[in-house]
Write a structure and sequence with these properties.
With 275 residues, the protein is of the alpha/beta class. Helix 7 runs parallel beside helix 9.
Length: 275
């Protein structure tokens, strides 16, 4: 893993967003798994934190939030169960950010190698008090509800949450993901999934309903994502993230452009919550 040069430290401070996107595009596809406009939304959103940010899952979002913490004097806690992913992103940040800017990584970032909803080592056991959350770990509805409840136990009266992949089907397991894994292991056939989208059957609907039923006030926040998702270069290069095989993406692009835009629009849910 080599360190590529963006410019001088003065350039980095002047062009913070451009620096973020430069770093994001150095990542392999496995880790560069969010649109540029979402990375910018996370970077901008980090300013809303009163001091501590918590994310579940690791990847390009971590780069955006780490930079947000560095530039805005905040701290990030990341929950991730995969040690290999932790190792890669930590090394990437050290080589491409910390070494050049002379940053102590531990001053801005703490890693928790555990399940976010673990009774022993999860979010609910933290002594710190985050006020800004980014939730992007397991995309099954029960897990998301449990993460919300865990976050609620450690935060104060008002807090912010950004959820990713809210346009996925609301189900107990991410079925398409496991179909892909089984195919790679030689345990199943490749399913060329047709693109279908029903706004009433996605995670966003159920998550928003859960929030409204369990908290005093929930206000949707406008973001950079909302006004820029249509033209995001990430979507043009990688597609919708609806599928886990490229051939289905190719077929979908030729048939359902309007439906795809509606799908992309619903990807994130950004809310301010009051208990």
């Amino acid at each position: 893993m080599q360190s590529y040069i963006f410019g001088t430290k003065k350039d980095i401070n002047k062009y913070k967003i451009e620096y973020l996107l430069f770093l994001k595009r150095l990542l392999p596809r496995e880790f560069n798994s969010i649109p540029d406009c979402l990375a910018i939304t996370l970077f901008n959103g980090s300013k809303k934190s009163k001091g501590l940010i918590l994310e579940t899952g690791i990847g390009a979002s971590t780069i955006a939030l780490f930079l947000g913490c560095y530039f805005n004097k905040k701290k990030l806690i990341t929950f991730e169960i995969n040690k290999k992913r932790i190792f890669f992103i930590k090394k990437f940040i050290k080589i491409n950010i910390c070494n050049y800017l002379n940053i102590d990584i531990d001053k801005y970032w703490k890693i928790k190698n555990s399940n976010s909803i673990s009774d022993k080592k999860g979010i609910s056991k933290l002594r710190e008090t985050p006020s800004f959350f980014y939730l992007d770990s397991s995309h099954n509805i029960k897990h998301i509800f449990n993460e919300i409840n865990a976050c609620s136990t450690i935060t104060k009266n008002k807090f912010y949450i950004i959820f990713d992949d809210m346009n996925f089907l609301s189900e107990n397991i991410n079925s398409k993901f496991y179909e892909m894994l089984n195919f790679k292991k030689g345990k199943g056939e490749l399913k060329k999934t047709n693109f279908s989208f029903n706004k009433n059957k996605i995670l966003k609907k159920d998550v928003f309903e859960f929030l409204n039923n369990n908290f005093k006030k929930v206000a949707v926040q406008k973001s950079y994502f909302d006004s820029n998702y249509k033209d995001d270069i990430y979507n043009k290069i990688y597609g919708t993230d609806f599928f886990y095989n490229e051939i289905s993406e190719i077929i979908a692009k030729k048939k359902n452009n309007k439906k795809i835009l509606n799908f992309l629009k619903e990807r994130i849910l950004f809310v301010k919550v009051e208990k």
